[in-house]
Amino acid sequence: MRSEKEMYELILGTAEEDGRIRAVYMNGSRTNRNAPRDLFQDYDIVYVVNETREFYEDPEWIDRFGERLYMQMPELMDQMMGMEMDLDANFGWLMQFADGNRIDLHVQSIPYARENIIKDKLCRILLDKDGILPGMPEPTDEEHWVKRPSEQEFLYECNEFWWCLNSVAKGLWREEIPYVMDMLNFHVRPQLITLLSWKIGRETEYRRSVGKCGKYMKNFLSAEEWERFLRTYPDAKTEHIWDAVEEMCGLFDDTAREEAAELGFDYNEAEAAGSRKFLKRVRSLPRDATEIF
């Protein structure tokens, strides 16, 4: 596997040798001092160029970066699916190499790059031959820090969590496992992750990010809380899903009560109790039931 030094030499050497490339900037986890460093970190690179067309019309141009296992060209794929894309402004190749490295490389027109770079606080300029890019402060993940919720946001998330469990319950009784898994992971779990992120935000004075999908929560939750959270991920067996739902309800309820007390918010305990009562009842229903209560 090529070293970080070798990769930067390749990336910057290419830019320095190619007169069409006028600047280089990087974003993503490698510019984020709070992101863990490991062998899977991508090199998120943007070449600012005079014209993107010269690059994306040359299928062999990217071969210089190494032997590829596979890749994706997201803007081209979106265009193929009927979306309106300005390939002359921005075009990319996401490349997984045979040695394990990955580069997410884009070429951008100068006007597009000037506008785009200021929208991302994790950008770092690596090369600027002509001084065409605006000055950038030290990269920070500040825009991804957990924000303090309002009471309305808190009540909304709680209501969404307790209400959507209704669909999980009926899906489990019907043994509609694909439906149940989607409802659980895409309509209920996000509320739990949001609530736990608010707890983490409060405890870190709202100066940290929990990462996409809460992937960094383990770094902030207690060992017990983390284990409880992991137990909310079931396999496809009906009884195991019910157990995970009960675990999820307990963790959400305990955390919601804590956050309401700490933030001075109301918490609809009757709503939570009603939802859990419904879940318990549905779980006990026989397959030939003709009424719920």
Keywords:
single chain, 14% strand, 293 residues, Beta Polymerase, domain 2, 2 domains, Four Helix Bundle (Hemerythrin (Met), subunit A), alpha+beta
The CATH superfamily of the largest domain is known as Nucleotidyltransferases  domain 2
The CATH topology of the largest domain comes to: Four Helix Bundle (Hemerythrin (Met), subunit A)
Cα gyration radius (Å):
24 Å
- Whole-number average pLDDT? 96
Q: Could you give a short account of the major beta sheet?
A: 6 strands, mixed
CATH class of the largest domain equals Mainly Alpha
Question: Can you tell me about this structure?
Answer:
- This protein is of the alpha+beta class and 293 residues long.
- It has nine helices and six strands; from the N terminus they run αββαβαββαβααααα.
- It folds into two domains: 4-142, Beta Polymerase, domain 2 (2-Layer Sandwich); 145-284, Up-down Bundle (Four Helix Bundle (Hemerythrin (Met), subunit A)).
- Strands 3-4-5-2-1-6 form a six-stranded mixed β-sheet.
- It starts with a helix and ends in a 9-residue tail after the last helix.
- The model has no long low-confidence stretch (mean pLDDT 96).
